[in-house]
Amino acid sequence: MDAIFYILLFVFGSSLGSFYVTTAERILTYFYGKKRKTGDWKTRLVSIATIPSHCQSCGAKISSFYLLPVFGFFFSKGRCRHCHTKLGIHYPLSEFLFGLVTSLSFYATDSLLFSISTTFLLGHLVISIFTDATYFSLDYENLPFILFFGTIANFALFGALPGLTELYVFLGFGFFYVLIYFVVKQGMGLGDVFFAPVFAFLAGHPFWILFLNTSYTLAIVVTFLTRKKGESLRGKMIPMGVYFSIALFFTYLAKVMYYYLGLEGFLEDDYES
């Protein structure tokens, strides 16, 4: 019975992964890309939620058999069955990651609420990654969902809602990023000013240190390794929303490890202080 339950958790998580990756791609198309001027925003929002899964190249509807999480990609041999366009490997990889996160987070915490809320949180982080990586833009409508599911995940893990400590973290990050935004010319995007304090708030104390260090370390390393030969890093645009999102996900993994290793009492004291 345990094995069946974990299989069901994996299927649920991988299905959510498929949904969120598809949603992220549709947001790019209908709100940032070639169809951003098609009808009003309500029409485009309905299109995102209701249009059946289809090939991005030829528009052909994808049959249910090939929509199976993870395996559907390999059943189709990684190509559209109509136009034979090669599909991205990110589809099965993201589905597998979501399924793994859902099942392993439950294994480590024994909390179904944490497992599900963390999976939804990851989905909305993926949307932020897609929009910022493609257009250097963070979707503000996505932020309340991140805040909601992140707060629920924290509550499920530690049994307490954010307190004064988290508020201080939020205010500290908010003041710091607003200051950078107005003082340093082109040093910070407005989306980062809104997103970074909320992400730090969700990370909480002392995990905000891990969140901050991880995000900027990733940004520096990836930017350095992917730059063109001889290209200066000065003035180079960096999609910090991508690295903030990845860092917040790693932060929640660290929280799970603390919980799993039996150190949650230390963290609960911080939440109650």
Automatic annotation (TrEMBL):
Molecular function, one GO term: aspartic-type endopeptidase activity
Keywords recorded for this protein, A-Z: Cell membrane, Membrane, Transmembrane, Transmembrane helix
Membrane topology: Multi-pass membrane protein
This protein's record includes keyword Transcription: no
Membrane-spanning intervals of the chain: 6-28, 112-131, 143-160, 167-184, 204-225, 237-261
GO CC annotation: plasma membrane
Residue ranges of domain Prepilin peptidase A24 N-terminal in the record: 11-107
Compartments where found: Cell membrane
Xref: Pfam families: A24_N_bact, Peptidase_A24
Prepilin type IV endopeptidase peptidase domain residues: 120-223
Biological process annotations from GO: signal peptide processing
InterPro entries, per the entry: Prepilin_IV_endopep_pep, Prepilin_pept_A24_N, Prepilin_peptidase/N-MTase
Family indicated by similarity: Belongs to the peptidase A24 family.
Official protein name in the record: Prepilin peptidase
Organism expressing this protein natively: Leptospira ognonensis
